[in-house]
Amino acid sequence: MLILIDDANLEDVAAIWSTLPVDGVTTNPTILARQHRDPLRTLRELRELLGAGPQLHAQVVGTEPDVMVNEALALRGELGEDLFVKIPVTEAGYVAMRRLSAQGVNVTATAIHAPMQAFLAAKAGARYVAPYINRLDNLGADGVRVAAEIQTLLDVHRMDTQLLAASFKNSQQITELAKLGAGAVTAAPAVLRNLFRNATTDAAVAEQRADLESVIGAGHTFADLVGSEETS
């Protein structure tokens, strides 16, 4: 399962990128607008930070098929042919998906709130389908269950499209989707950090360190012991 960072703050993205084995970055117009700067410049800098290979997802804002296609091609020309262009699952969006996928553009279908929206996007050529887990929960649905239904549809019909679950409120939702075999998830830095942070782990490490320091001295490590043996 790929894990992506759902953010456009360069400092926060860089911190996660240098710490965790993540696979890229997803953005949307709202995330970019929160940076209060030229969104294209932000996308360029994210591409530079990630380097070649890792995924970068950027969403069009046009609402008509021709506009969406032109916008997608412009973004691809600016940010590289491996860019994943996010297209909403609207009536116009499905038209744009079919045209873009026919031209070899990587399409991520987004703003998905129902399994059939995802299924139709897969048939339209989308590489990824992105349901909004937390938003579904807020609407009274079960976001993880909806994602599971989408995964079942993709598996049963042996489609090349993968699930890219988005919009998380906690790390447990990501764990549940990992168990389902989701192709990818994308989450904010705070949620990603909670995938590994655990107070009990920290306490165990601190206890073990204190036990050894009682023998070798505070602040020392095995490297200090090796060095002292070599000079003794």
UniProtKB/TrEMBL annotation:
<dbReference type="GO" id="GO:0016832">
    <property type="term" value="F:aldehyde-lyase activity"/>
</dbReference>
<keyword id="KW-0808">Transferase</keyword>
<keyword id="KW-0704">Schiff base</keyword>
<dbReference type="InterPro" id="IPR013785">
    <property type="entry name" value="Aldolase_TIM"/>
</dbReference>
<dbReference type="InterPro" id="IPR033919">
    <property type="entry name" value="TSA/FSA_arc/bac"/>
</dbReference>
<dbReference type="GO" id="GO:0005737">
    <property type="term" value="C:cytoplasm"/>
</dbReference>
<dbReference type="InterPro" id="IPR001585">
    <property type="entry name" value="TAL/FSA"/>
</dbReference>
<protein>
    <submittedName>
        <fullName>Transaldolase</fullName>
        <ecNumber>2.2.1.2</ecNumber>
    </submittedName>
</protein>
<dbReference type="GO" id="GO:0005975">
    <property type="term" value="P:carbohydrate metabolic process"/>
</dbReference>
<dbReference type="Pfam" id="PF00923">
    <property type="entry name" value="TAL_FSA"/>
</dbReference>
<dbReference type="InterPro" id="IPR018225">
    <property type="entry name" value="Transaldolase_AS"/>
</dbReference>
<dbReference type="GO" id="GO:0004801">
    <property type="term" value="F:transaldolase activity"/>
</dbReference>
